[in-house]
Write a structure and sequence with these properties.
This protein is of the alpha/beta class. The protein is built from 12 helices and 10 strands.
Amino acid sequence: MLVNATAMLQAAVKGHYGIAAFNTNDLEWTRSILLAAEELQSPVIIQCTRGAANWQQGFKVVKDVVEDLVDYMKITVPVAMHLDHGTYEDCFEAIDAGFTSIMYDGSHEPTFEINMERTAEIVKLCHSKGISVEAEVGGIGGVEDGVASNGELADPQECKAIADLGVDFLACGIGNIHGLYPADWAGLSMDRLAEIKALTGDLPLVLHGGTGIPTAMVQEAITNGVAKINVNTDLQVVMARATREFIESGKDLEGKNYDPRKLLKPGFDAIVKRAKELIVDFGSDGKGWA
């Protein structure tokens, strides 16, 4: 059975560890994430963007795949099914599809007031259905048209205003970016994180763009209130690297290794291995029912 993410993230805040939120791209991706979480007895959040949902033929298919795998694999740890960076419209579709956790990303709305109004509406609807809600303040940077941003720093007062709406966890820009980090990245602003934490209390905070941030820096952020760390590019990179190595070694030409179950297995094994490393780095191993 899938659960919402509230209890696991509140426990993470109290226990000073972080929970990985891994994006999924297909059934085997989900299976790999679940294998890692179950082996290390870690709660886990499996999340999906609109783009990844379209690739998998819709939010309902994604949710059904995750739920069926949890049942078939006899997964014993808490698993949340989360919408990542949902637009206002995406939220209603994911709710109808049975997602147990929703992120409404209002950080790119024309005004902060619209972000506030729509966040309040989503919180009210989701909480009536037992669904957890993540909101965002301060857009997360990234690479667009070859230009890398160092990432925004969220306004602490805006963070407090959104937190006061009753969201269950909050994504706030502290210099983090999506995708791969440039060599001249300025790093996370622990000062801004502390300012936000001082105004939002025990509310679990979310670190987007978890790929490539030095482990010690992520762990410092966890110590200072981050409870959910988003990981997407990291698993894509290791999967692609392992698949490339298998093909470049010529192993795909041996026997029946053209069978996708054999051709893609090294990539998915790499996902399991990397997911386990990150779970340990974030400190959620053994916290399945903390």
